[in-house]
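Worked example 2:
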Amino acid sequence: QVQLVESGGGLVQAGGSLRLSCAPSGRTFGSYRMAWFRQTPGKERDVVAAINWNGGLTHYADSVKGRFTISRDNGKNTVYLQMNRLKPEDTAVYYCAADRRSGIATMTTEYDYWGQGTQVSVSA
């Protein structure tokens, strides 16, 4: 069983930056596709960014293009989400997701493993 552990969330002012990290425990994830999703109360969990196993393919939600960057270091068994120029509307719980299938995916149903989530709060 893969357990994903997120870190790096917190409170930041609008215009600031945060970097989220996700490290699976129990096994290496070098061949897994990975993604970051976010969710606010009463709303669905939506993809923020996704990446394939070697980082050659990435996908971003329109709302974060040009501000967020997803990357991975398979040697360190870690995936990152660099978030710049944060806005109050980026406030959400951010979840890391992993799946052993190939390619890239943007739907929650396409991921088998999830982290507990980390809160990101952006003040105006």
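The two ends are 40 Å apart (CA to CA). The chain has a mean pLDDT of 95.
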